Amino acid sequence: MGKPVKIKVGISGINAVDNPGPGIGVIRSLKEDNGLDVEVYGLAYDAMDPGIYLDWLVDRSFIVPYPSGNPEGFIERLSYIKENHGLDMVFPMLDAELPLYIKYRQELEDLGIVTFLPTMDQFKLRSKENLEQMAKAMGIITPMSKSVNSFGQLGAAIEELGLPVMVKGAFYKAYPAYTPQDAMAAYNKVVAEWGYPVILQRMVTGEEMNVVGAGDGSGNSMGAVGIKKILITSLGKIWTGVTVKHQGMLDAAEAFVREFKWKGGFELECIVTGDQVNLIEINPRFPAWTYFATGVGVNLPANCLRRAMGLPLRAIRDYEAGKLYIRYTYELVTDMKAFSNMMTRGESI
Fold this sequence. Notes:
Layout: E1 6-11, H1 23-31, E2 37-44, E3 60-63, H2 71-85, E4 89-91, H3 98-103, H4 105-110, H5 120-125, H6 131-138, E5 145-148, H7 151-161, E6 165-169, E7 174-177, H8 180-194, E8 198-202, E9 207-216, E10 221-232, E11 238-244, H9 247-260, E12 263-273, E13 276-283, H10 290-295, H11 300-308, E14 324-326, H12 336-344
Parallel strand pairs: 1-2, 1-4, 2-3
Antiparallel strand pairs: 5-8, 6-7, 6-8, 9-10, 9-12, 10-11, 11-14, 12-13
Helix pairs in contact: 1-11, 6-9, 7-8
C-alpha cells in the first residue's frame, strides 16, 4: 500500500471553551485515522479561539469573516486560502455556518473545495418547527412544540402546552421555564441573541440520551454511537457520559438516515423512558462529544472525509456499551507571537 495523499482540510468550531465547538473532536478523529494524511487548517472567528494554539492538532489557522456578514467576503477568504496554501475540503461545524456553505456549495466545488453536507431542504426539514413529522417518520415521538414570534403567541403557546416548557432558539440555547415569568425572561434572552422564531417545547422527564451518526447521502449509515449523559455543565453540555445501546434510539437514527437520505454528521438528542424515545432535537452536524465515538472505535468524521474524497470507507464497527467519557480542562502556555499574527495578519505562520 502506497503512502496516502496529503489532504488539506479546513475545520471550524475550534472554540474549545466552556461551550465547546465540535471542531477539536473532529480534528482528533481525522488525525487518528492512520490511513489518512490530513493537514488541518483551523477556521476561526476569533483570535482567542483555543484551537488556534493547539499546534499538535491544528497545523495552521486563519481568521474568517462571520457567516452572517458578507457572503462574498466569506467565499473570497476560502479562495485566498485555497490559492495560497491549498484547501481540499471544508468541515463547517457550526449550525449558523451551514446555510451559507450549502448555498455556495457549487461555488466552492468550482474552486476545488469539497464539502459533505445535507441539502438545503434537508437542513430546513430537521429544524425544530418540523420535529413532529420527523419523529413520526423515524418511528418515535416528540414533545408537543410551538413556534412563536410575539408575546401574544408566547402566552397562547404556554396556555396550550402547559408548564413547564423549554424555551429554545432556532439554532442554539434552551432554557427551562416553570412559570410564565420564566418563559418571558427566556423568550427575551433567545430573541436578543438569536432572533425569531422562538420554540416552546413541552418538558418531558426521563434519561438524557444522544446519538451521533453519519449518513452517506444515499440512505446508508456510516456508523452511529449512543450515549447516556451522566453530568452536564450549566450550559447543558455533556461533561461525563457512558455508551449505551438503546435499540429504539439506534433504530431511530438508522431510520433518520434512511428516510431522509441524510448526508454528513448529525446528532439526535432524546429523552428516554423505558422503551419510549422522545426526540428533543436534531443537530445537523457533529456534536462537541464526537471524539467519544472515535474513542470507542467508530470514526465518523474520517468516514465522511473518505466518502467526500472518494476514498475507501473504514468498515463500520460496533461498539461496547459501558465505556466512559470524561471531558477535562487543559491549560496551554504559548508565545504571544501566535496571537499577534492572528490579530495583524489573520493567520498563523
